[in-house]
Amino acid sequence: MSVRRYHSQLRQGAAERRAETHPLTWRLREDGTMVGLEEYVEKKGYAAVREVLNHRTADDVIKTMKEANVRGRGGAGFSAGVKWSLTMKGPDIPRGYLVCNADEMEPGTFKDRLLLEQQPHLLIEGMILAGYANDSCFGYIFLRGEYLEAARAVQRALDEARAAGWLGADIAGSGFDFDIALHSGAGRYICGEETALINSLEGRRANPRDKPPFPGQSGAWGKPTVVNNVETLCNAPGVMHHGAQWYQELSGELSDDGGTKLYGVSGKVNMPGLWELPIGTPASELLERAGGMRDGRTLKTWLPGGGSTGFLLPEHLDSPLDFDSIGKLGSRLGTGLLTVVNEDQSVLALVRNLEQFFARESCGWCTPCRDGLPWTVKLLQALERGEGEPRDIEMLDKLADDLGPGKTFCAHAPGAAMPLQSALKYFRDEFERGVTNPAGVTHDEPMPVGEA
Ligand SMILES: Cc1cc2nc3c(=O)[nH]c(=O)nc-3n(C[C@H](O)[C@H](O)[C@H](O)COP(=O)(O)O)c2cc1C
Ligand code: SF4
User: Fold this and answer.
1) Do both 114 and 72 map to the same domain?
2) Measuring CA to CA, which residue among 99, 97, 121 is closest to residue 221?
3) What pLDDT shows up at residue 187?
4) What is the pLDDT of residue 287?
5) Cβ atoms < 10 Å from Cβ of 93
6) Where are the alpha helices (DSSP H) in 28-172?
7) Residues 314 and 393 both lie in one domain
8) Which of 43, 74, 89, 290 is 20 to 30 A from 98, alpha carbon to alpha carbon?
9) Ligand 2 close to Cβ of residue 413 (< 6 A)
């Protein structure tokens, strides 16, 4: 397999990464090529599966995950242990499915890609443990369609694991049967929403489903289904191997959340990339590790975890990057990959670009999202051209409110509202500078198809 060609790679050398402190990345090779089965097993790979499947109950696995407080790394931060405990299971309940969400289309996010391409056996091990805990009969990896190299790596790892008896019937002589299939999506952001993902997996149109019932009650093909993010599942082997207390202590005094986080930085920095650090590490440290701002420019603003999170300011850089701390600042940790913006860049243009993406990726089921997002784009484009009307900014405030939580079927629209609302709060002057068109002149010509 080839050496990495893109700059989105782990920036920590092997000397810094140890099994006790870097459970997600300590086995990664310096050249970025995939860790195959032999090497993975040599480095204690699948040891947690052998131990757990033969000596521990499913309830015990769930209890340990709960105690470790592994919070979902897909963006919402919901406890994996709690999710697993809520999945319907028992003698009268049909065995369901475990789905790994590897759709990763959040703008500015490229963390799962690293794990999928370079260490797919860690994911498979995590999925076997999750499948055992949830009494799942089969697992799926729902992969973003464009991740071709990840598809090759995951398929190779699945074949290797099956040939070695880590997948299939009677895994490690435990009596537990479980297998995993790779399913590549068609490259749509909405397929990352867990119920839209399930619809897509079933071969239906990728619209989110009404909840309840939640997937843990009735998911894929009407069976109890657990959906977890790649990074969340990759945490399970370490937790089972070292215990809940070890996981909790990884973050030390930095955060009440346990474990490490695969953080990243992109944008106008000297060295974009990924770092595995204790959860709660402040953004200031990440920025420093990324070599600071490029060309000596000044930081203007930053998104903490992808395009669907809210802008924060330089004064927020020392806040812990964890779910609750970033929530208290009015944003979201999201995926934990920072997008850094310098003083020369236009926030208005950045927000317009993001809203174009969100408008294009709307599934079209709810009116505020289907109609509100293209309208938002049109107003932002007018302001960008300097042809905005005085009422446009008020209208953007209203549209952002209409896209907010509780008004649509899924979190796509509230996610799209976050960068808009926070940009209007912190950088309103940029929007106001786009207002030159006298009141009364409208720009309500139909938007060309495909523009938004
Ligand atoms: C529009 C939209 C896109 C999403 N995309 C992803 C994604 O690509 N990967 C992911 O893990 N979660 C994504 N999510 C969150 C999932 O719905 C779900 O919460 C997550 O997969 C649960 O895993 P976790 O508990 O391990 O975080 C998305 C949510 C929304 C609303
Ligand atoms: S919020 Fe948008 S993406 Fe989500 S269901 Fe409604 S229309 Fe579809």
Assistant:
1) yes
2) 97
3) 84
4) 98
5) 13
6) 37-42, 47-55, 58-68, 80-86, 111-118, 120-133, 148-163
7) no
8) 43
9) yes
For the CA of 77, the nearest atom of ligand 1: 27
pLDDT for res 2: 47
Residue 219: CB within 6 Å of ligand 1? Answer: no
Q: Is 416 in the pocket of ligand 1 (CB under 6 A)?
A: no
Binding site membership of 58 for ligand 2 (Cβ less than 6 Å): no
Do 160 and 142 fall within a single domain?
A: yes
pTM of the model: 0.95
**Count of beta carbons in the 10 Å neighbourhood of residue 76:** 14
Q: What is the position in ligand 2's atom list of the atom closest to the CA of 363?
A: 8
Ranges of residues in the chain with a pLDDT under 70 are 1-8, 437-452
Q: In terms of Cα–Cα distance, which of 64, 17, 70, 85 is closest to 256?
A: 70
372 and 313, same domain (yes or no)? no
Same domain, 413 and 273: no
Is ligand 2 within 6 A of the CB of residue 199? no
The reply to whether 191 and 300 lie within a common domain is no
Q: Is 394 found in the same domain as 265?
A: no
How many angstroms does the Cα of residue 262 sit away from the middle of ligand 2?
28
The answer to whether the bond into 212 is cis (omega within 30° of 0) is: yes
